[in-house]
Design a protein that fits this description.
By secondary structure, this protein is an alpha/beta fold. It has two domains: 179 residues, Rossmann fold (3-Layer(aba) Sandwich), CATH 3.40.50; 43 residues, no CATH class. It is built from eleven helices and four strands. Helix 1 packs across helix 2, helix 2 packs parallel to helix 3 and helix 2 packs across helix 7. The radius of gyration is 18 Å and the shape is globular.
């Protein structure tokens, strides 16, 4: 990968998005993770009016490590920062379901977090004339490891074609904070959660499968990745509309 070319072309792409839409700035979810870090750096290179919103919710990691790392990124690269704590909003929603006699399971409950974050980003974007920059990488998109209408929602995505290893390569070159580069990728929806532990496969295995097919990984990994990829197709397209789709 020609790193300098990649950075220049992605920065130019973001500028074209701004020119095409007439937006006044950019906003992204600054989670303290690798993907949001790269998106934040690229957006800031393309536009001075770039805001990263930190949105802690429930987990201890959100309020400690993630906030600290997100803050380090913002300080180092001159990114405007806003913090919106969504814990009480989520608790109110869970309570409202309870009042209606509905108890949400762990999966439905955890998916509320990224959907609330999407709402925050779009409310800020609407108020300030910004575009929402997406932060999902190619591996996550391939297996659908994101929440539909949550962290998968955006106006454009400047890193959606990059594998996790490529993300790290660019972050190293750009001088991202070491803590962000070294920590295990995690959605941090619950304590101790990691992406790879959640999926049951590594990002390297997903990349190998994407690039060289099922034979490039073990049988078990191939089954997991293949199943996730098949199940994810609906996340990568707009909902079908009658009568075009039946």
């Amino acid at each position: 990968m020609d790193i300098v070319k990649e950075i220049e072309e992605r920065t130019a792409y973001i500028r074209r998005m701004l020119e095409k839409t007439g937006a006044k700035g950019l906003v992204f979810g600054n989670s303290g993770g690798k993907d949001s870090a790269l998106v934040g750096i690229l957006c800031r290179r393309a536009c001075e009016n770039t805001t990263g919103i930190m949105m802690p919710c429930e987990s201890k990691r959100n309020y400690s490590e993630d906030l600290a790392d997100a803050g380090d990124l913002a300080e180092k690269f001159g990114i405007n920062t806003v913090t919106v704590d969504i814990t009480d909003v989520k608790r109110a929603m869970i309570s409202a379901f309870g009042d209606a006699g509905i108890t949400l399971g762990a999966d439905a409950s955890s998916n509320i977090n990224p959907r609330l974050r999407m709402s925050v980003l779009y409310a800020y974007a609407r108020e300030n004339g910004c575009l929402v920059a997406g932060t999902g990488n190619a591996c996550e998109r391939f297996v659908g490891y994101f929440t539909k209408w949550g962290d998968g929602a955006c106006d454009f995505n400047p890193i959606g074609d990059l594998s996790v290893s490529e993300i790290y390569e660019l972050l190293e070159y750009l001088g991202a904070p070491e803590n962000i580069i070294k920590k295990a990728p995690s959605a941090a929806l619950i304590e101790g959660q990691t992406d790879e532990g959640d999926m049951g496969v590594t990002y390297d295995e997903i990349t190998a499968y994407m690039q060289n097919g099922a034979g490039a990984v073990s049988g078990n990994a191939a089954r997991i990745i293949g199943r996730m990829h098949s199940a994810a197709s609906h996340k990568l397209s707009m909902p079908p509309v009658y009568p075009q789709e039946k």
